[in-house]
Amino acid sequence: MPRRVTPEGIRITKVGLWYVLLTVVVAVAATNTGNNALYMVLASMLAALVVSGVASRHNVRSLELTVEPPAEVFANRPFRMAFRLASRGWLVPRWFLLFRLEDTGRPLLVPYLGRRAESRGELEAILPRRGRHRLGAGHVSSLFPFGFFRKGSRHRLDLEILVFPEIFPAAARRAEPSAHVGRGPSRRALWGHDLHALRGFRPGDDPRGIHWKQTARTGEIIFMERASERGRRLSILLDNGIGRRREPADDPRFEGLVSEAATAAVDYLARGFEVELVTRDRRLGFAGGPRQRHAVLEALALVEPVPRAARPLTSSDPQAARLRLSLDREAAA
Q1: Burial code of 281-314, b = ≥16 C-beta within 10 A, e = fewer?
Q2: Which CATH number describes the domain made up of 5-164?
Q3: d(Cα 68, Cα 34) in Å, to the nearest integer?
Q4: Which residue from 158, 115, 120, 109 is spatially nearest to 138, judged by alpha carbons?
Q5: Neighbouring residues of 62: CB distance < 8 A, sequence distance ≥ 6
Q6: From CA 146, how far away is CA 26, in angstroms rounded?
Q7: What does residue 326 show for φ and ψ, rounded to 5 degrees?
Q8: What does the pLDDT look like over 46-97, one tens digit per residue?
Q9: 3-class SS at 323?
């Protein structure tokens, strides 16, 4: 099994560099004058250098690091990652440890870590792009005890994080309304005024739909399905057929369309709509609730440009409202 902790070399700091230069000056003065007091000062300064190097190296040994990413991460939005830093040393505690992740945010200071103790906290980070990101390692370093040297260790993590598209404050484009908005209930279970059925509660159901009287009567959690109204559906038609050989300016525009689709999906699902996502290479059927939210965001996090196609994207429900997103439409506008 490969080692999960890799020691890193000792790097001298600015303070340490000036200290070494001062030590050299004292050494030259002691050699030229033969003053015993200067020799004693030189010996003390050299001893401090040795103690600093040994102590900083020992301070980052026998450490164990674990990191737990959050359930949802959005591009260009700060998020917090829970971490646990534990010491396996028996003799002395650890002091002034700096913990950071590769290419994410600022380091975090752990001022004290006792013997056989652990420190838990959260590290703020930000990732600029959607898609899969791999956090290869975490770094723990220390300037203890005098700040002359920085010694560190690399802890392999191999974490893969799926970053959802950036969410805008509000959708920049309105959906095209269907011709049958609000014309009576359909026999689909969603949020409406008429009761559709009573059934057992399933994982992913909205707790607001629990029938508390029936739950108290039967001893089991009963969920109310209501008949949805026509027009409580949104079909997001994202045309990712922009071709492999595209203009460089198309990339940020395409990412903006993906973020707009994600913003609309999150917004409409939160309002009780059923949402469908249609792209050139994938179709997610109409559904609502947290599961559909995660499925749509995951699909948009991984969507990539494909070759162009002349065939228009269509909704599976002609009565549903539609949100069309296309680079060609952007150019025409």
Answers
A1: eeebebbbbeebbebbbebbbebebbeeeeeebe
A2: 2.60.40
A3: 60
A4: 158
A5: 87, 88, 89
A6: 19
A7: -155, 140
A8: 999 888 888 888 888 888 888 888 989 999 998 888 989 998 888 888 888 8
A9: strand
Query: Quick one: which H or E segment has residue 233?
Result: strand 233-238
- H/E segment holding residue 316: none
DSSP 125-176: E---S-EEEEEEEEEEEE-TTTSSEEEEEEEEEEEEEEEEPPPPSS-SSPPB
Name the β-bridge partners of 82: 68, 122
Percent of the chain scoring above 70 in pLDDT:
84
Total residues found in the chain within this entry: 333
Q: With bands split at pLDDT 50, 70 and 90, how would you rate the model's confidence at 317?
A: confident
Give the residue extent of every domain in the chain: 5-164, 166-183+230-333
pTM score: 0.69
Return the SS3 of 230: coil
Q: Regarding predicted confidence, which is higher, 281 or 332?
A: 281
